[in-house]
Amino acid sequence: MSQAQSQYPGESRESFMARVHEALGRTRTEKPSEPPPQADQNIVRLARPGDDLVAMFEERAKITGMKVIPIAAADMTKRIVSLLEELGARKLVVGVGSLPQALGLKDSLRRKNYEVIDWASSPGLEVQFEADAGITDVHAALAETGTLICNSDAGHSRGLSLVPSVHLAIVRRSDILPDMFDYWARLKGIPGSQLPSSMAFITGPSKTADIEGELIKGVHGPKDVHIFFVQDA
Amino acid sequence: MKVSFFVTCLTDTFYPRTAIAAVKVLEHLGCEVDFPQEQTCCGQPMYNTGFHDDSRDLARRMVRVFEHSDHVVTPSGSCAAMIRDYYPDLLKDDPAYAQGGIDLAAKTFEFIEFLVNVLKVDLKAMQARWEGQVTYHYSCHLRGIGVTDEAVRVMKQIDGLDYVPLPKQDQCCGFGGAFSIKYPPISGAMVNDKVGCIASTKAPIVVSNDAGCTMNIAGACRRQGVAVGFKSLPEIIAEGLGLLPVEQPDPVTTPASS
Amino acid sequence: MAQTPVDPLAFTPPSMHGEHLLDPPLPYDITKRASAASVNIQLQQFVANGTTAKDSARKLVMPATFGEHVDDVRALAGSIKQHTLDHLDYYLEQFIDRATEAGVKVHFAADSKQANAICLEIARQNNVKLCLKSKSMVTEETHLLPALESIGVKTIETDLGEFILQLDNDAPSHLVAPMIHKDRTAVGRAFARELGVPYTDVPTELTQIARQYLRALYPKADMGISGGNFLVAETGSVVICTNEGNGRLCTSAPRIHVAFVGIEKMVPTLSHLGVLLKVLARSSTAQPLTCYTHIMTGPKRAHEHDGPEEMHIILLDNQRTQILREETREMLRCIRCGACLNACPVYRKIGGHAYGAVYSGPIGSLITPMLRGLDNYKDLPNASSLCGACYEACPVKINIPKYLVQLRADIVKSNLGKKADAVFFRTWAMTLKHSLLYRMGGWFQSRMFRLQAGRTLRKGSPYSARGWLNKLPGPFKGWTDQRDMPTPPAKNFRHWWHEHQKSKGQ
After folding, report:
1. Nearest to A220 among C87, C214, C314 (CB)
2. Per-residue pLDDT at B67
3. Do B219 and C483 meet the contact criterion of CB atoms below 8 Å apart?
């Protein structure tokens, strides 16, 4: 598939690929004669459906420095407010789907006089810099590594789990998948153009050890991640 | 069991007692040991410095010298690694020697590896006894042939041997053949690190099996004034089984300077 | 004279980029820097401690995670990369098509110059004034920063380590921990000087200052630049694995995102990405995953609220197709984890700047000569004891020692080596081909040594008592510069064997 005259400098796809062909000892692109090695093998799978996924997720999330707060669904607003009070957070950005929406989380927060910034009507993520905390749910969570998967879509922006210094993540028991291979399986067959433009696997608060190897949290991204772990959903 | 002994150039000249000990132990364990006289060098120095035509000639020579051997046992881990890891590749394009290279690689063993993994020696059962406090340097090329803690396991089978682990045991001592002569500041920094680790154990004896490593580390200990003695594990085993008289470890100081 | 802190939006980084460090005069001779490094106590301490800690952590975490299958997992990861490289044409084409369908503008850069030119044109077309960068070794390779600055684009590094290096005319010295060589007081001085803040050398305070500065810039940046840890052919995605958050911010806040990625970063599918993710961070820093794995597939969609409007991927060749040839292809498996740097006893002593190139350590010793000319970097494949710690550490099983030796053979074949070496080794090889010559040579050598050893000769067993030399002549003096030389005992093994056979009646 040759490209129309590009308005940018650089090579044409054809001449670029020609060097690749030459290095491989071919004159044109050939489909591989054998399939790639099978990725999803037992030796690399680190969590299985039969494992105690709840305990595993909790333990591994904690090791990365995220805090895990087990709650019942009915207590969600109460527990979140309690933490916000403790943190002294007043301005919030909230991006949640199904369960928290059903529980009316955003409205409850507004009624309790938290300023819930309407980030959706302001393009980009600049306005999210004003928030003290970002509250999101997750698209999935991995027991294998204690990872939160936060993707961008109509109800969730990239910045919610990234810009505010504190990230509150609502994870339901039913969000937890054993291993990342189980997540890839969900995406199988979806063409790239229909995937979210951004999928973020979050495994801990923002960290660095650049200065003399000293571990410091909260470099650019959130300094603290609090996971509200809904046991009964 | 028939064993052909490959002494290696450095061991033959600089540490013959190590080789003598190895042969005595093999014979004591019931092996029929022969020594093909035509052997010279495995060609590793030429291979490592990029003179591959020459190292290929020497590889072919080795294949011929040990053609009729069932097992080839050598006290040098780096020579065993040369043969096992590189001979097949080095000779793969020579139809007359390709199979020979593969065969030689398949039947070549480092001495301690041979004792533990082939002869399955149990020195405790054999009532080996040797008094002394030692620390042990792991020679890099044992990595290449998959030898890990065989030497430590053997030492722990010997009654009276007090084994002290060496910090950063498997960090390279900086010999690397020509490397030690061509890059003195780097090689020197590496061997001095090793000497520091040895000194920190306060052990009076260093067990080092590869002749190159031993020459390097012993020479550095002497230069730094760290008064330790060097012994190879084959010697300890031979002495422990009463096959060789117990000898003072090879000191880095001399009567005149001690 | 009290300083006032510079306003982040008015801040202009210095225009020197540590070029003297990673771009020294060629051909590069390692001696001076290696010698200086080996006596630099602070460097020894920082580099040795940093690398040893990570290496030990990796050695614990990999078996703790994969049990007895560590080697199989590495073999799997290696075979995935190898398969992709063996069919790089197919997967590249797939990637280009999928990425384009997802809305990415894919560019093709034959070399550094073209890569930079493309980026500059994107900046020009979009009237870019402020550009923020996340960590990318490829952009170091192409010298992107000075190029952008030459057309008036203010470009600021956002990775904490890279930001600090940018402020101090310094350069990265490790693939993953760029300022492993730098101490906190140097950071404090650089911040005070360039940012006008009161001096502090407390790491948490320094980090807070950097956070404040850089976060003020994200909403104002016109363009964000990243590298890419992986390209996923099946979806047309670029993946970056980071810890600080600046990578996600650089690729989400500005209107334009430009990713510079070497073609060797390709993997076939998300599933294959998964295998490599499982070994990358564990080999690098002993983490199960980095804090952020960011999988980017095209610019923001219409229904999304943030993210770049335009996403460009600049695919870079720059001699990678030369390395792609069969005899060196394995080198391209590298996933830039840095495990080999952490394992290497040479790197531990001399640090990254001593290699005189963007890519240092064991993998750097292979790809630097390939990328920049073997004649320019002859020392790199040679300054190694071939200990194999790198091969053991590599999560994709690149046989680094084998390729170091292969490059040494290339140096010999192209007559780039020292003539004296050729004479010495070829002559020595000759004596080894004839057992009589060999034995005579050995005998002569032994006698000479023992003569020289003089009074240091010990009395004792003829098979073990020896003497010492503290000076070797001519080309061998490198040995005795650093250590004494033991001399052979009086008799050798062959002599004993002869006696042994006699005593057995043979």
Report:
1. C214
2. 96
3. yes
